[in-house]
Structure formats: C-alpha cells, structure tokens
Records
---
Amino acid sequence: MTTTVHPQTAPSGLLRSRRFLSVWSAQTLSAAGDRLFSAAVAWYAIMHLGVTTGVIVVGLAQFLPIAIMAPFTGVLVDRLPRHWLLAGTDIARFAVSLALCLAFSTIGLSTPLLVIGIVVLRVTGVMFEPALQSHIGTVASDEGEVLRLDAWLLTSDMISGMLGPVLAGIAVTAGIQIALLVNSLTFLLSALSLIGALRALTDGSPARTHSLRAAAGGWTTAAREGLAAARQDPAMTRLAPTLPLIDLVETGVLLVLPALLIDQSTHGGLWYGTLIGSWFTGRLLGLLLARRFIVRTRKGILLALNAFIQGTALLAAGLWPAPPWMMLCFLIVGVPSGCASVCVNAYIQTRIEENLRGRIFALLGAVVALSMPLGPVISGLVAHLASPALSLVVLGAVLAVVGLSPLTSRQLWQTP
C-alpha cells in the first residue's frame, strides 16, 4: 500500500531546533554503545570459546532476539509515544549494562551469564532503531528535512561504527567489566540528551496510548497488517531481497578482506585500512549527494541501481584483487550504499502510512539481523575451499544478480 504521506508540520523543523545537536549526539552515543558492547563480547567469546563457537554463540545471542521480537516491537512502536520510547529504551539499557557490570564484578564472569546479558540487553534495546526511524518522518517539517535528518543520522551511525570497536579495544584490555561500564555511560548520556530534547521530538500525530497492556492488545493482527503493507508496496517488494543481502555481503567482505590482502601484499594491514577508508569515503560522498542533489528529485533511480552497482564493483575487485584497483572499487561500492540508505529510510518515512512505519522498520531490522551472521559463514567457507578472491567474486556476483530485480523494475525507476 503506497501513499504519499506528508510529515506533520511543526512551527519549526527539528534541524532548526537548538536541540538537534542533542538528538544527533544521542543517536551517536547510543549506537556507539551498541558497537562497543558487540565488539567487547565478541572479543571475550572468541578468547574463551574459540573462533567458531564464539562467533556462533555471540551471533545467535545478539541477532536472534531482534528477529524474534520484531513483529511485537514494531506494533509497540506504532502504538506508544515514540519520543518516550527513545528515552526509555536508553534508560533501560543503561540499567542493564550497569547491572551486568556489577554482576560480573561480584559473581564472576561466565559464558552462560554473558549470553543471558547479551540477550537481555538486546531485548531492552530492540525498539530504539525502529522508533527513531519512524519518528523522523513525523517530526520533520517537510520531505526535504526528512532527507537531511536521515543523512545526519546515517553519518552518526558511521562515526559510531568506527568509535565503538576502538572503545571496546581499549576497554577490554582492562576487563570486560570496564567495557560494560563504558557502555552503560554511553546509554545514560544518550538518555539524558533525549530527555532534554523531548519537546523538540514531540510530534503532531494522533494521540497514542501510554498503557503497555493496551498497546500490546491484538498484536498478532497488527503485525500481520504491517507485513501485508510491506508485501503490497511495489517498491518494497522489489527492494526486500536486496536489503538484507547487502548487509550479509558487507559482513562477509569484512571477514575475508584481511586474508585476501595477506595473499596479495606484504603490507596487508596498511591496505586494509586504506580500503575500509575508501569504502567509508564513498558512503560519506553518497550521503552528501543524497542530501544535496539527488534524492528530492528521484529516489527510485538510486534504489534501482544500488545493489547491482555494489555487486558489480565487488565482483570487479575480486576478479582483479590488486589493492590500488580494489581501492577504486570499494569507493564505488560506498557511493550507492550511502545514497540508497537515505533513500530507503526516506521512502518509508514519507510513502508508508504513519501508523505502520514502526512495523515496517522492525520487519526490515529482523530480516537484516537474520542475514548478517550468514555473511562470514559463506565468505569463510568459499575462502577455505578455494581462495579469498573467489569469495569476493561470489559475494559480488550474488548481489549483482539479485540486484537485477530492482534494476529492471520500470515502476521503481519512476518512484519520485
């Protein structure tokens, strides 16, 4: 069901609010806390359980709760006040992280307790991202501001993606308890920033219930409504297979890239940083293009080209894995990735009915969460049986082939 949904108009846009920096900082801190925790527990699990068992245990504990709870949490996001959900979620994550830190310090660190902690923390935070993404389309004053907000928030996600693992590496050297303490502080600062910005985040949408019991009533029917809306939307139908596959490919490339560079160069570490930097630069460039030039006029072009261009560039990098050539290929991969991320979010925020957005974002999050652990498995298996370069070729070829569906959709190309 595709409808043009105009955001609720406020006297002044969120970007013009003095509180926008608080909102942006909150998202960056909250996402950095997530990445910090993920990197820290992965580090611990691999050291104590081994690579294979550690990756499987941590992957299942981190991603399964998101996938399982997505239908339920999407309904809550659409029925409860989203601005309070954002602050409440980070308060809960602060409390859980601090409790885990104290538990590990007093009871002692064990794998079962760690797995329980991972699951509890993921459950408490599962509503943050769909609530934030759904809310942007409501508080923004117009579609242009929606696009700019998405670009800013995706930039904060990139920053946190680099900041979280760095903090984890520093913290884990002093013990995972310190990592959890730092994690709890990021959530506390995020919660305080969001509480300070609640007035700017209050929207003009229809009144929502404040009762969790009332919001959870009939959730199975409501969840099916969200799934039906996604399946009936022509653009979402074309894009649905590509979105989780892009994340799957990304995780697979990040795993196999060091092995490939070791085969190709005696300066693998230096080239690894250079290639990741090229990828990051391409995404930033894509965000800039999306924000300033392209998205307002025709989002469909970028959505149609995204997966095919990324897959073709990765395929080219795998066929000729010379580091300078790969640097160009990774830059090309990043540009449509940055553009399309803004386009997908903006499409849902402006074309999907306001009372269904939480369920759509939660559904996408669930599918992505299920797909991401498969990337390292596939790339690692191909690299083990053949070579790291062939692994890159396979990942790129699969993404390019799946990208043919949106590429050949005339309706998607014409999406405004």
---
Amino acid sequence: MTGTDVSRDIRTAPRRTVLISGAGVAGPALAFWLNRYGFAVTVVERAGAPRGGGYPVDVRGTALEVVRRMGILPGLRDAHIDLRRLTFLDRDGGEVASVDPHTVTGGVAGADLEVRRGDLTGALYTAVRDDVEFLFNDRIDTLDQSGHGVDVTFLGGSRRTFDLVCGADGLHSRTRAFLFGPEEQFHRYLGYCFAGFTLRDTFGLSHETIMWNTPGRAAALYAPGDNDEVHALLNFAHPEPPFEAFRNPQAQRDLVTAVFADAGWEVPGLLAAMRDADDLFFDAVSQIRMPRWSSGRVALVGDAAYAPSFLTGQGSSLALVGAYMLASSLADRDHAAGFAAYEHSTREFVTVNQDQVGEGDATLFPTTARALEQRNDMLRNLGAMPPGEGRPAHSALTLPAFTPMT
C-alpha cells in the first residue's frame, strides 16, 4: 500500500472531531491515520513550530511498515544515518572494543532506520499538514467530559468541544495528569539520569559513536557525519529521581558537573560545553507503565501511555505503531469499543518492547566494577561477530490492513 492508496478514502458526514495534544512523533502519525479514516482532526502543540534537530532515533520492525504505508519511507531512507562503528573506551580513554552498532542495539543492517528526530517529525508533519488543523503556541488548559463530548479550554483562552481527545504529549504528559493524576504512580525509574546536548565536532569523528565508561557513569559522543556537530550524552546512575532538578536547568548542570567532576578523557571539555549549551535536555531514564490508556472519551498514545525509555531504542517505533493501532481501532467503533480494541490489540507488543530493558542497558551502563569488566569481556568477543537478525520484539505485531471508510 502506498501513500496514494491511503488517500483514496471516501468521507462520510458527520465527521467525528478529535483533538490531539502533541506534535512530536505519535501526534502527527495519529492525525494522519485518523484523517484517512474520515475524522476531522486538530493538533495542538505548545511549541511555535515542529521541532527540528534532536538526537537520532530508531525506526524498526513493525514501525517500518507504518511509515511505508504512510508513503514517507523513501524520504526517511534518504535521511538515514549510516552509523558504522561503536567504540567503547576505558577510564583512561584507551580502546576496549569497537563493534558494529547493530550487534549491541539489536537492529537490522540495511533495513532499520536511524534518523534525526527532527527529520522524522518533519516528515510526519509534512505528510499531514494540509489535511488537519494545527494550533501552535498553545496547549490544553482544562478538560471537561461531563457533557456529550469533551469541552476543552486552551491556555490561549479559546474553548471548543470535541468528540474525542488523544494525549500524545510525551513522558511528562499533561493530558495523562488531567485524567489519572500525578505521574509518580505510573513512573518506573530505571536508576539513571542523563544530560544531552550538541557541540562542535573537534574530535574528527564521522558516522560513529564513542562511549567512555567508569562504573555508574558514561560519556558518549555521537557523530552522524553530515555536519560539524556531535551529540553528547552524559549518563549516570542515581539512586532516586532528582525531582528538584527537573525544572531547574542550573540545578541540572550542577548535578551533572558534580557527578563527573573527577572524570578523565574528554569529559572536562564536555562539561564546559554543557554549561554553554542552549539545547540541554536533562531527564531521568524511566518508563511509563499504566493499567489502562483511556478514560471516557480521552486516550493516550506513545510515551504518554507507554514510554519504554531510550535504553530500549523503541520509543519512536512504539509511538508510530500505537498511533496506527489506535486509529484503526476507532475507524468503525465508538470511542468505548475503539479504546478497548486499541489496548487489546497493542498492549502485548508494548509490554514485550518495554521488557527489552536489560538487553541494552547492561551493556551500555554497568554500575559496578565487576559488571564493567564482564561487559568489556563480552564486547571483545562481540567485535568478531556479524550483526544479527534483530530482536523478535521489534516485529512482534502484524498491522491490520488499512480499510478506508465508505
């Protein structure tokens, strides 16, 4: 099925109205498919425009079929980052091992995609921008389901009523908080925090990642190879989520600087670059695990409902697949039956991918000297092995066919 195929849907009136909160990955993908199923879609996004740049993300397994059906796969292939080498360093910067990245990530060479997040979100936005309404520089302020629809008040002051609302607003979803209460009850902290930012490439890197480790600490440089910038990641074990730092950029910088104060290799220079970075992103490494993804006429999709953490490399893929499955489930059902079908058809796929934690993180971020030594021995053996065929979890769901409403 091609993008042309899916555009041959026949609209019927009246069209159900849907508000989607969030224009990242899940939001525009959901908007695309709901529009194809005949819904009138509005997307609200607090940023002023689709966000460009960002750290590279992966599209794997079942998610590749989603973007193929959307007609955006060729463009994403053109944007693919051909990462060729992953090198691990010891405390002093000496090489421990250099391996094919796919042997660690579980990806499939020549099939899976790795693209800048902005390239993916840009492709999704372009695919749907002419067919749905986008409201930038705004967000949901209140939700009221006491009537026959969902009465929404926007932060900008306007009020509208929608048949359905979908929260695609990320790990720290406001929509989820409106429906289910504080994030802490669904937040599964995985024991790490990280700071990511970009800096000028003065290291001579290209199409590769270099990772320095000591127990409980890691510093990585990711070089896509098509410009003079590299992405830096400083990751560290921390016993509890540092909630006091999440909304305080200076506290974030101070915490990371303290943790890496005695680190060698290039870390002192990375700390200096972090202090001046205008794109610093700091967060806990965590998952969202919920017993249900909807309440009344409001549902959640992507990280808002089931963030798997970057340790799995499956956040974007789950968002794409979840968006497709939610739209498909609603196509010929009312909201109650549709949301139930969405959970029934998608939860197992979500769970098996969230459970991939432990596959990659043990390799990347050992927390003890013994675990680091074992990791290094494993990597030395891994360097001589060819990449595998990918993890079954990545393709553990078969998409239903797209059937336009007539």
